[in-house]
Amino acid sequence: MEKSNGLRVVLFPLPLQGCINPMIQLAKILHSRGFSITVIHTRFNAPKASNHPLFTFIQIPDGLSETETQTHNTKLLLTLLNRNCESPVRDCLTTLLQSADSETEEDKQRISCLIDDSGWIFTQPLAQSLNLPRFVLNTFKVSFFRNHFVLPQLRREMYLLSQDSEQEDLVEEFPPLRKKDLLRILGVETELLDQYLAMMLETTKASSGLIFMSCEELEQDSLRQAREDFKVPIFTIGPSHIHFPASSSSLLSPDETSISWLDKQEDKSVIYVSFGSIVTISESDLMEIAWGLRNSNQPFLWVVRVGLVAHGTEPIEAIPEELIERLNEKGKIVKWAPQQEVLKHRAIGGFLTHNGWNSTVESICEGVPMICLPFRWDQLLNARFVSEVWMVGIHLEGRIERNEIERAIRRLFLETEGEAIRERMKLLKDKVGMSVKQNGSAYRSLEHLIDYISSF
Ligand code: UDP
Question: Which atom of ligand 1 is nearest the CA belonging to 337?
Answer without folding.
Answer: 8
